Amino acid sequence: MATKAGSAEVPQTTSADVEGDGLRRRDYLKVAAVSFAGVGAVVAIAPLLVQMAPSADVLAQATTEVDISKVQPGQGIKVSWRKQPVFVRNLTPKEIAEANAVKLSDLRDPQTLAERTKPGKQNWLITLGVCTHLGCVPLGISEGENRGPYGGYFCPCHGSQYDTAARIRQGPAPKNLAVPDYKFTAATTVLIGAKG
Question: pLDDT per residue over 49-64, tens digit each?
Fold first, then answer.
């Protein structure tokens, strides 16, 4: 009986024998199924991504050219760029001196006037006209408007006050008025929205 049991034993296979055959049919099917699912996901998401792309009217407003030849020192103008107000202000030497005299340690969002303007054009301050608290439009760009105690901008909604460099000095706004990308294309022309 011992001889029958010994002859009836089934040879055992090792993992080396199975792996030695390389890729099996099942592996090819797994790769094909994952690839098919990946292509299907891309096809399903592509229309959503196309829908989220900016419309033609937004792309047309990617840059705005502004003539600043008539803006005298101490004056400012408001223009529109990407459906947002932009303040372009020609600072007086006194306003520049006031901005440079402020200690950075006194500022909530420390930036120098030089960091907010272009070299050689420190008198031209260009910022978005949108309060960084809740998105209101501050006063102070037009003549006769309340500029607050710091001589810059005043947001009447919640009392945010900005200095002559459009830096937040008092009130709930957490950041300075944002400086968009812009470059001077001529001595009296600014292209807002262009890096430079």
Answer: 888 877 766 666 688 8
Do the Cβ atoms of 188 and 77 come closer than 8 Å?
Answer: no
178-183, long-range: CB within 8 Å, 24+ apart, which pairs?
A: 178/127, 178/128, 178/130, 178/132, 179/116, 179/126, 179/127, 179/128, 180/81, 180/86, 180/126, 180/127, 180/128, 182/118, 182/126, 183/118
Question: 127 near 140, Cβ under 8 Å?
Answer: no
pLDDT value at position 142?
86
The catalytic residues are: 158
Q: Which amino acid appears at position 112 of this protein?
A: T
The candidate with the shortest Cα–Cα distance to 162, out of 193, 190, 130, is 130
Joined tokens for residue 70: 């008539």
Q: Note the pLDDT of residue 158.
A: 87
Distance of CA 149 to the CA centre of its chain: 30
List pLDDT tens digits, range 79-92.
998 889 999 999 99
Distance CA 154, CA 132 (A): 12
Quick one: average pLDDT of 139-155? 89
Reference 99, options 147, 146, 141, 162; nearest CA is: 162
